[in-house]
Every structure is written in structure tokens, then in C-alpha cells.
């Protein structure tokens, strides 16, 4: 009964996080298809995370001069499928996801780097609070994803040798958090705000070592949208940059409502979530892609000949 209640509570939390930013959604989510002939609108697909907080703040403060419509997705698979089918013009995704789509021939570009947040969260076992404790433990992840990569690279001993651990496949992040809380998982890397939610419930959360989850997400655009919706893209960049400046110049309390609505969390929890230093629009660095690409090749997720050439495409608002 307790397990059932716990699961229900966390599933409800997951749904709140998935729907928490629907105040941003508009025509593209209702139609289920981006309109390539309407150069004034941009449809952007996202997951529940802090990566796109500047977009929410820009919307809240009225910084966008063109309509920006956000579509929320529960899983990376759904998000990527929407980009492939043209249901969205762009998606906030990690670099691995971007390279997977690009390597398959999808005409996409990665012009904007995002700032996100991840932490390694331990389960209910009070004896676990550092990476060395995770030898032979049960680790929650989703195979062949950025989290899989970061987990494998993070779980090493003092000499850099990989620690043995049992992989537990858990696709949905809210369920991963629930399994940590119930003791079914010993640890998992979670994005914010899920890591902070876990910490608020008594779980130990630490930074992922060696900057493995720093500088790993960006905004992936369809090339067609960059070309045919250049005015909307320009307006998006201008609004985004205004939001970043506003967040830097004002205390969090002035824009915390966007955090609460974006993530579907309480005002108290919104004030606890560690946020990155958001930067104005800039292109990802090619060197940030290389460690991930090498891992992908070792796992045979992309052809050995794939170099990600042409994926990064800087754009500048005039």
C-alpha cells in the first residue's frame, strides 16, 4: 500500500512537471505541427528541466516580439520524434541527442548552447554518500543516452578505473526519483529540479564529478526553420538575451514565478534549486562535443566516419 501511494505521489509530481509550463504553449501544441509557412511563429520542444528557464522568463517579462510556443514532452524519444516529423522548429536537447539525429541525415543545426543542471542523487541507504560507495550497487539510467555516458564516466575509483555496478533501465525520470526514494535504486544522475526535489525529501545529492554534465545541452533547430523563419529566430535571440540580462540584474524573487510555473514546484522549492549562470546566446564549442562523440563511437551509436561537421552553426542577432 505504501509503495502504491508513493508511486502515485511521484507520478503526480511527474505530471505536474510535464504540464507545469503549459502557460507557454500555443498553436503548435494544439495543431501538433509547426507551420513552416508562418515565419512569425517558433515552436520549441522541451523536457521538464532548467535548461530553458531564460525562455520562460522572457515570456513572463514580455521580451519576445514574436510568438514563441513551447511544447512539453515526457521523454527524449517523444521530443526527438517531434523534431524529425516537423512538429516543432527546435528542441532543447543534449549534445548526444543532437549528434544522433544529425548522424542519421536529419537537416538540423545546433546554433545555441544552453545551461542546465544535473546532480548525482543517492538512494535511501544512509551508508551511501560518495562515488566510492557505489561499487556493485544498482544505478538507474536510460541506455545510450547522455545520462548513460555521464554515469559510466563518473563511476570510477581514485585511479580512474571503472567501478562495477548493476545497470537498472528506468526511462522516466520521475520514476527514477521514486525508486531512489523507495530504496530500489542506490543512485542515479538526475536533472534539476528532480535532484533538488530528492534532496528536499532527505536524499543526498552531490555534483557530478569532472564537469561531465556541464555544457552538454543546446537548442537544436531544423535548418528549414533557421532559413524560413529568420525574423522569428532573430526575435527569439533578442528576447532570450534580454531575459539573461534581466536574471543577472535582478534577484531571483523578481522572476521566481517563472521557475514555479516552468517546473510546477512550490515557491519554497523554487528558491532552493541551484541554477547555472545563464549566458547570452552563443554557439556550442566543438571541443565539448568530442568526448561524447568518442563514447558514442565506442558504443557504435554513430558511424566511425561521423565527425559532427556542420552541426554547429552560429547565428547572431543583428
Summary of the model, kept short:
The protein is an alpha/beta fold. It is built from 13 helices and 10 strands.
Task: Please characterize this protein's 3D structure.
By secondary structure, the protein is an alpha/beta fold. The chain has two domains: 2-116 and 216-298, Periplasmic binding protein-like II (D-Maltodextrin-Binding Protein, domain 2, 3-Layer(aba) Sandwich); 118-211, D-Maltodextrin-Binding Protein, domain 2 (3-Layer(aba) Sandwich). Helix content is 41%, strand content 15%. The protein is built from 13 helices and ten strands. The chain has helices spanning 2-19, 27-31, 53-61, 76-84, 95-103, 146-154, 173-182, 194-200, 223-228, 230-249, 256-263, 267-272, 286-298, and strands at residues 42-46, 68-72, 90-94, 108-114, 118-122, 138-141, 166-169, 187-191, 205-207, 217-222. The strands form two sheets. It has a five-stranded mixed beta sheet, with helices on both faces. A five-stranded mixed beta sheet has the order 7-6-8-5-9, sandwiched between helices. Helix 6 (146-154) links the parallel strand 6 (138-141) and strand 7. Helix 1 runs antiparallel to helix 7 and helix 3 (53-61) crosses helix 10 (230-249). The longest helix is centred in the last third of the chain and has 20 residues, at 230-249. Mean pLDDT is 88; it is low at 1-12 and 15-27.
Amino acid at each position: 500500500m505504501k509503495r502504491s501511494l508513493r508511486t502515485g505521489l511521484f507520478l503526480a509530481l511527474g505530471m505536474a512537471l510535464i504540464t507545469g509550463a503549459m502557460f507557454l504553449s500555443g498553436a503548435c501544441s494544439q495543431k501538433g505541427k509547426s507551420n513552416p509557412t508562418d515565419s512569425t511563429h517558433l515552436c520549441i520542444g522541451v523536457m521538464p528541466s532548467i535548461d530553458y528557464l531564460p525562455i520562460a522568463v522572457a515570456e513572463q517579462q514580455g521580451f519576445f516580439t514574436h510568438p514563441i510556443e513551447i511544447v512539453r514532452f515526457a521523454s527524449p524519444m517523444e521530443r526527438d520524434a517531434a523534431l524529425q516529423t516537423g512538429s516543432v522548429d527546435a528542441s532543447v536537447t543534449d549534445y548526444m541527442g543532437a549528434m544522433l539525429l544529425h548522424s542519421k541525415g536529419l537537416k538540423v543545426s545546433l546554433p545555441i548552447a544552453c545551461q542546465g543542471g544535473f546532480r548525482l542523487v543517492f538512494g535511501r541507504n544512509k551508508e551511501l554518500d560518495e562515488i566510492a560507495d557505489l561499487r556493485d550497487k544498482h544505478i538507474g539510467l536510460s541506455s545510450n543516452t547522455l545520462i548513460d555516458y555521464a554515469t559510466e564516466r563518473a563511476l570510477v575509483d581514485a585511479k580512474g578505473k571503472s567501478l562495477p555496478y548493476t545497470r537498472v533501465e528506468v526511462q522516466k525520470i520521475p520514476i527514477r526519483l521514486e525508486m531512489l526514494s523507495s530504496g530500489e535504486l542506490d543512485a542515479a544522475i538526475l536533472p534539476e529540479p528532480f535532484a533538488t526535489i530528492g534532496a528536499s525529501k532527505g536524499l543526498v545529492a552531490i555534483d557530478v564529478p569532472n564537469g561531465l554534465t556541464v555544457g552538454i545541452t543546446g537548442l537544436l533547430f531544423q535548418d528549414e526553420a533557421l532559413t524560413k523563419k529568420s525574423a522569428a529566430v532573430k526575435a527569439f535571440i533578442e528576447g532570450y538575451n534580454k531575459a539573461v540580462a534581466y536574471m543577472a540584474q535582478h534577484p531571483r524573487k523578481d522572476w521566481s514565478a517563472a521557475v514555479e510555473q516552468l517546473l510546477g514546484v512550490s515557491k519554497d522549492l523554487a528558491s532552493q534549486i541551484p541554477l547555472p549562470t545563464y549566458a547570452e546566446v552563443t554557439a556550442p564549442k566543438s571541443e565539448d562535443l568530442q568526448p561524447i562523440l568518442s563514447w558514442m563511437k565506442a558504443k557504435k551509436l554513430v558511424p566511425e566516419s561521423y565527425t559532427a561537421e556542420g552541426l554547429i552553426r552560429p547565428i547572431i542577432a543583428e
